[in-house]
Amino acid sequence: WILGHINLSRGSVLKLLDIDCNKTNDEEKFKRGVEKNYNIKININTVRTEFEKRGKFIINAVNTIDEEILNREIKYKLPNSGNTIRDAIAFTSWHETFHIGQIDLILAANGKGGIK
């Protein structure tokens, strides 16, 4: 679920940057606040591939974007932040760090690794 949620977030940033990422209706299952569904079926290889692909798109965009686009306002205010594309990218970075930390803690709690 966490990886699907991060992909959804990456897709939202790419949409702000006018970059197509083949966002699917299934991704809506990973929105914050949606009703829990313990029967979500996903293809983990597809999710991982999309995770990597969207990450590369974001890295490329960040490395080539100009200041005018970074300072463009978006329609909503982000938590503890402003409302520009720059703020959206910064929030996404924090958001991913938070959730990747969750994944690491879950792995450690289940004896499957984690930060050593």
Structural write-up:
The protein is 56% helix and 0% strand. The chain is mainly alpha-helical. Helix 1 (2-16) packs parallel to helix 2 (44-64) and helix 1 (2-16) packs antiparallel against helix 4 (85-109).
Task: Explain briefly what this protein structure is.
With 116 residues, the chain is mostly helical.
Give the overall pLDDT as a whole number: 87
- The total strand number stands at 0
Q: Please indicate the percent range of residues in DSSP E strands (runs of 2 or more).
A: under 5%
| Computed Rg | 15 Å
Q: Structural class, from secondary structure content?
A: mainly alpha
Annotate the secondary structure layout.
Blueprint: H1 2-16, H2 44-64, H3 67-70, H4 85-109
Helix pairs in contact: 1-2, 1-4
Q: What are the main properties of this structure?
A:
0% strand, globular, single chain, 56% helix, 116 residues, mainly alpha
